[in-house]
Amino acid sequence: MRGCRSTVRLFIVVFSVWLLVDLFLVNDSTIKQNLDKYDQNSINSEQRAAIIPHPPKTPGEDKFHRNLENHHDSEPIKPAHSDYSERHPKHHEEKIDTPDEQIDQPVPDPAETELAIVEKSDSEDWRHKMPWKGVNSVASDPGEMGKAVKFTTEEDKKKSKDMFKINQFNLMASDMISLDRSLKDVRTPACKAHKIDNVKLPTTAIVIVFHNEAWTTLLRTVHSVINRSPWHLVKEIILVDDCSEREHLGKPLEKEVANYPIKVTIVRQLKREGLIRARLVGAEAVPETIDTITFLDAHCECTEGWLEPQLERIRLNRKTVTCPIIDVISDDTFEYLLGSDMTWGGFNWKLNFRWYPVPERENKRRGYDKSQPLRSPTMAGGLFTIDRQYFYEIGSYDHGMDIWGGENLEMSFRIWQCGGVLEIVTCSHVGHVFRKQTPYTFPGGTGKIINKNNRRLAEVWMDDFRRFYYIINPHVLKTEYGDVTERKNLRNDLQCKNFQWYLDNVYPESHIPRRYKSLGEVKSDSTGYCLDTLGKKENEDIGAFYCHGQGGNQIFSFTDYGELRNDDLCLDVAGVGKPLKLIKCHRQKGNQLWEFTDARRIKHVNTNRCLEITMDNVKSKKHKPVLGDCNDSAVDQVFTINNATIPGFDDVNSLSKMRGL
Ligand SMILES: [Mn+2]
């Protein structure tokens, strides 16, 4: 183990990646190749995972089981998968195989979806009776009730700043907070009013993958599961160590979890495999008697009642994959901050997962009841629960993907296109430490790995719509992406619907333009300059640059909504004399409504003025787009809007089809 760790160290290259959601562990095939050279025994992939048997039953565990039986003597707890299905045959398939209808289906009567019966089978103070040392924190401890931990002395501030680099979060703050710290019960009254009979729920195993995780964040994740989940539902916690190098994650971790009241199994990867393959190993370690798998990140905190509403959705339809609302644990102060229940998962032109506002359409479907689960087009990927057998039925993960990246969209598209349902269960809240920067290493660079994974994603699931991705990222076409035959066969065997169906029914709000006049450069004829985002962000001014024909920041779509958009940003002018800005597309026309006239003018409808690209600075030849009075004789107002093509990919027919013409 130690050999593996120090070997990995030799090949570490640090790359900083700015990500909103850092749900990953990394590795690279080059590392693996190098490791193989060092690995005298050249172990194969099956042999890599050494499963440490779970410790003998503790006195606490026995006591716990007795206690449970007392609670449920009328209905003994049986963990077999068949258990929840046999007892509740009606929740199976019947409603579910027609996702087309589901999309427009009104929110069902709560009496049908939420069980009528309802006594909380565990008394409120059940955990205080256990020999479990949990919930021993006191109100005066740092960070209690999710409060921020702040340092006042210069010495502490400096020390915490230094320690920050280890995990890219405030390790010193985390280390001061109790593993059992209390959190507010963040559920809304409507959520609390949902009655769930937790005796009838499917059981789950929690799978947590970690690599060099801090002691306190990892164990606080585990403690929060134990402290805030019904013990009869969480049958096992499986920690997958993706070849960590830190000593505390070796023997000390085994010793620590040996006496926990819920069985904790540690699975060791002897080679670093990355998140995707580590998850698969973790899932395989889940006993067949357990109904569902719950994946969590290694720096989370579960809140009161986080688990039951998710399991309830799976009980009602085993093809539902559920995510909690992911709240924010500040990487700086470890303050627990409530996440929005008004956002869902989408993706942009680069196939990056992004949060976007829930559209009116979906709110209407839910009867404007925020406590009803949201049908989300995609998931962030780190935190979700899935029926164990269904996980395999729909193809677990794409084994051909490396390390991390794209697997969450792959799973999202697959769930929806192959007859499943992906939900954000808004009554379930789990906090996650969002980092601004990854502490992990990306040997070879993130780009290479993500391009490969996304290429596989696009080739297997996106049909002709993959060209949007390739036009924005032409270099992806040069990426070696391996063989996707197996995944295409899976799609065929499962008789999955096509990507157009997904866009039409699940994600009509997607940023992929469906009907458009053009997708390419917006070129000023007189200057040879093009509209260019210059890589600017939302709310910043748009620029112009000499047309380079390389796509990327100069690709705009003139859509049937009258938008001029690059990805999820639209060209927007707030009024006469106001600058041209990039604003999140809202599809409400307004200041984002443009018209391409017969005289090839680009007219801003609200101000009745026309786009022109002018010299901003004669010395530097810097140009910028502005609005001027429309004038049919002004040559600098003449534009050409192009449709970019991909050599060997597009023909005239497919282009017209793509444009919805
Ligand atoms: Mn994370």
Question: Notable features of this structure?
Answer:
six-stranded mixed sheet, single chain, 26 strands, Spore Coat Polysaccharide Biosynthesis Protein SpsA, Chain A, globular, 661 residues, alpha+beta, Helicase, Ruva Protein, domain 3, 3 domains, 28% helix, Trefoil (Acidic Fibroblast Growth Factor, subunit A), 22 helices, binds manganese (II) ion
Describe the structure in your own words.
Helix content is about 30%, strand content about 20%. The protein is α+β, with helices and mostly antiparallel strands and about 650 residues long. A 6-stranded mixed sheet has the order 1-4-3-2-5-12, sandwiched between helices. Strands 6, 7, 8, 11 and 13 form a 5-stranded mixed sheet that branches. Helix 17 (about 405-415) packs parallel to helix 18. Residues about 1-85 and about 85-130 have low confidence and may be disordered. The chain binds manganese (II) ion (MN).
Per the CATH scheme, the topology name of the largest domain is Spore Coat Polysaccharide Biosynthesis Protein SpsA, Chain A
Taking pLDDT < 50 over at least 5 consecutive residues as the criterion, the unreliable ranges are 1-83, 85-130
Mean pLDDT: 81
Number of helices: 22
> Strands across the major sheet, in which order?
1-4-3-2-5-12
Q: From the coordinates shown, what is the CATH architecture of the largest domain?
A: Alpha-Beta Complex
What secondary-structure arrangement, pairings included, does this model have?
Layout (H helix, E strand, L loop, with lengths): L1 H9 L18 H10 L6 H4 E3 L7 H13 L9 H7 L11 H6 L5 H4 L40 H14 L3 H6 L12 H5 L10 E7 L4 H14 L5 E8 L9 H7 L6 E6 L5 H10 L7 E5 L3 E3 L5 H9 L3 E10 L6 E2 L5 E5 L5 E5 L2 H6 L8 E2 L8 E4 H6 L13 H11 L3 E13 L12 H16 L4 H7 L12 H9 L5 H8 L9 E5 L1 E3 L4 E4 L10 E4 L9 E4 L4 E3 L2 E5 L6 E5 L9 E3 L5 E3 L4 E9 L4 E8 L9 E3 L10 H7 L3
Parallel strand pairs: 2-3, 2-5, 3-4, 7-13
Antiparallel strand pairs: 1-4, 5-12, 6-13, 7-8, 9-10, 11-13, 14-18, 15-26, 16-17, 18-19, 19-20, 20-21, 22-23, 23-24, 24-25
Manganese (II) ion binds next to loops.
